[in-house]
Amino acid sequence: MWPVALSSIRPLISWLQEEVPDEVLLKIMSYLKEKDLCRAAQVCKRWNTLTNDPTIWKNLYTAVFEYTQPMMHPEHGKFYFVKPEEYNCPNPWKDSFRQLYKGVHVKPGYAEHYHNNADRYKGREHMLYYDTIEDAMGGVNECHHEGLIFVHSGIYQDEWIYVESPVTIIGAAPGKVAEHVVIENTRDSSIVFMEGCEDAFVGFMTIRFSPEDSSATHHHAHHAVEINTNCRPIISNSIIRSSSTVGSAVCVTGSGAQPTIRNCNISDCENVGLYVTDHAQGFVEDCEISGNALAGIWVKNYANPIMRRNHIHHGRDVGVFTFEKGMGYFEQCNIHHNRIAGFEVKAGANPTVVNCEIHHGQTGGIYVHEKGRGQFIDNKIHSNQFAGIWVTSHSDPTIRGNSIF
Fold first, then answer.
1. What per-residue confidence (pLDDT) applies to 282?
2. In whole angstroms, what is the distance from residue 264 CA to residue 360 CA?
3. For the chain, which ranges sit under pLDDT 70?
4. Which residues does the UniProt record annotate as the domain F-box (predicted)?
5. CA neighbor of 230 nearest in space, from 201, 184, 195, 276
6. Pick the CATH number of 157-164+171-404 from 3.40.50.10540, 2.160.20.10, 2.70.180.20, 2.40.50.320
7. Where are the domains of the chain?
8. What is the DSSP pairing of strand 78-81 with strand 71-75?
9. Could you report the per-residue pLDDT of 136-176, keeping only the tens digit for each?
């Protein structure tokens, strides 16, 4: 074959770059994958503009990640959605694609489809798909990827998810993501954080413990989320449930256990919602904790968590129960409509409660008894059925600057 002189194809190159209408080029570019789009952007200024078309990148993005809005990931442990029309750059879909690009995907049945249609996905050879979360986590241990795992729509049942490395496991689905990605166990704790999981992140999913025999005593040690000694994971934007009548939905236990739990919904559990014990600490912020059969929160045995801006309400028992030397710092929490007291302190417990609103308790607001202590400062305590604050049995709380009516 004779070589083609460059001079003979220059008119064609010029025509492609300058004369083809935008709508025709955009149609052609809509068939390209992300790597080819980035290469095409280097051809000329006009193509650079066209290849950055938000609609093209939105279609690419939703095909891979499924999100209805761009998910930003500017740094480790931080994920949030943005509205495209309010984003401060012209193409949030492309920006998000770049930030999430190195992740792997758990999408049952898709790995085989992906392998059998290699030509269709040319340019995405590095993009890994797994059928189970366990397999994806095994890929981290074998150094196949860096540990950013997207779990797509579905119910993932009875997998053994023990987190022992700083992985990120995040739901990926359209609309309300957490409602479409469900991790459920019927025999053991659904997700267990072990020593070595420093800075692990789990978010945007439903995590359920749903035993067949909800009253079996051995389930006392099983939870939807279990956080053990020397663990500091982040759990964010998730729905956490347990139908077991023993144990709790979330258990934080042991020295050095210090999770950050934020923007989670821990509600309608058949026992305790959140249980913090045995010198554990941590941060619980902006969570919805409601409708639990026993306390929304238990704090026991020198545990000392920091809890801010939580909404703790309509519990079928007490809202917050600190006992047996439990401590904790509670600030700007809204605690109301719990069946017994909004806040109960017992047996040497010594919490600090500041700038909270404790109201409409069906029995009372704050109940301190059996040598309970605590500092209750600058709270608004009102509209409770009986006493706003009830102190009995050799208890010695500090009560200062509260509005009680």
1. 98
2. 23
3. 1-18, 123, 125, 217-219
4. 14-60
5. 195
6. 2.160.20.10
7. 22-65, 157-164+171-404
8. antiparallel
9. 999 887 777 889 999 999 999 999 999 999 999 999 999 99
Token pair in block for residue 222:
């099983």
Which pLDDT score, from 0 to 100, does residue 110 have?
A: 83
**Cα-Cα-Cα-Cα dihedral of 303, 304, 306, 309, to 10°?**
60
pTM above 0.85, yes or no: yes
Which phi and psi (to 5°) does residue 208 adopt? -125, 140
Nearest one of 107, 27, 26 to 64, comparing CA atoms: 107
Half-sphere exposure (CA, 13 Å, Cβ side) for 388?
Answer: 14
Within 13 Å and on the Cβ side, how many CA atoms surround 80?
8
Classified by CATH at the fold level, domain 22-65 comes out as Monooxygenase (1.20.1280)
Q: How far is CA 32 from the centre of its chain?
A: 33
Give the per-residue pLDDT at 1. Answer: 44
